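Page 47, continued from p. 46.
Same chain as before, 91 aa.
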Amino acid sequence: MERDIERYLVKRVKDLGGVAYKFVSPAHRGVADRLVVLPGGRVWFVEVKAPGGRLSLLQQVFLDGMVKLGHNACVVWSKEDVDQLIEEMTE
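Result:
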């Protein structure tokens, strides 16, 4: 379930000494679920989806916009995706 993947992400980020803030912006629909802040000034916008879930157009527009601005943004669909993301974050 999406909730389990999100909890797993929060735990893995915490293990790195970071924080995975729940990101809510009432005036802007489509923002990522989590704003991951890691030591050393590394920041990621992370959308969490369950396997078989669907990324909305607004969510895709938000993620693409963050990347165009030079930020890190991605979607995780499973705990394995979270593990892969954590590996990328720590390179």
